[in-house]
Amino acid sequence: MDAYKRLLLGNKAWVEEKIAIDPNYFPLHAGPQKPQFMWIGCSDSRVPAEEITSAEPGELFVHRNVANLVVHTDFNMLSALQFAVEMLQVEHIIVCGHYDCGGVKNALTRHDFGLINKWLRYIKDVYRLHRRDLDAIDDPQQRLDRMIEINVMEQVNNLAETSIVQRSWKKYGRPTLHGWIYDLRTGYIKEQACLRPGAKLEPIYLFDFWDEPGTEQKEESKPLGDAPPVPSPAAH
Ligand code: CO
Q: Is 194 a catalytic residue?
């Protein structure tokens, strides 16, 4: 049997299992989605978001990429983020990394992977920012584990530094941002970081949303030189 057919058979078995427990399972879950959580995780096959959190369909709005990165020019991630924050109005965004992450591990080598170099470069930048702390750890396994933890914290910061999140924090007081680490060796998730709405950020990343009604434009938030003076309220 072709290996892929096992998945289609698995699907049939899953449908039957769900209907056996609740005949209305699928009609009940076919309505509009209203997930409370956005999940940004690694593409790694060993870290299935719903499975490891016992979440049902409709509960997690999921975006996954290599090494669970939040890159501020990644339109795929940003589109999912904007949709989750503005349309779905999620209360929590979880960046979930995991130990033994191949993306992080390989970013710490000098191997040339071709195209992937460009993605792993963001992880190398995280290493450079924290090199002193990381290089102080002698044990290679502990150093890699710490790098994976630091990477998740940096990605949570990256989320907080988007205008999408900052606007929502200011207007609606949500979402809370979480950094989690999944331990493949035990199955448990560890809470690594949490940024609540209004958390203190590096000032250079803070936006003054002076285009919001009733907001005075401050001197330091005026654009310089030839930049257009009035961004549209919808701009991000
Ligand atoms: Co990974």
A: no
User: Residues 6, 29, 46, 111: which is the catalytic one?
Assistant: 46
pLDDT in tens, 48-73: 999 999 999 999 999 999 999 999 99
For every residue of the chain, which 3-state class applies, written as one string? CCCCHHHHHHHHHHHHHHHHHCCCHHHHHCCCCCCCEEEEEECCCCCCHHHHHCCCCCCEEEEEECCCCCCCCCHHHHHHHHHHHHHCCCCEEEEEEECCCHHHHHHCCCCCCCCHHHHHHHHHHHHHHCHHHHHCCCCHHHHHHHHHHHHHHHHHHHHHCCHHHHHHHHHHCCCEEEEEEECCCCCCEEEEEEECCCCCCCHHHCCCCCCCCCCCCCHHHCCCCCCCCCCCCCCC
pLDDT band (50, 70, 90) for residue 227: low
Surrounding residues of ion ligand 1, Cβ less than 5 A: 42, 44, 101, 103
46 labelled catalytic: yes
Q: Is 96 a catalytic residue?
A: no
Q: How far is the CA of 99 from the centre of ligand 1 (A)?
A: 8
Average pLDDT over the chain, rounded to an integer: 93
42 is catalytic: yes
pLDDT at 222 over 80: no
Please give the domain boundaries of the chain with CATH numbers for all domains.
Answer: 33-219 (3.40.1050.10)
Q: At residue 120, does pLDDT exceed 70? A: yes
pLDDT confidence of residue 11? 97
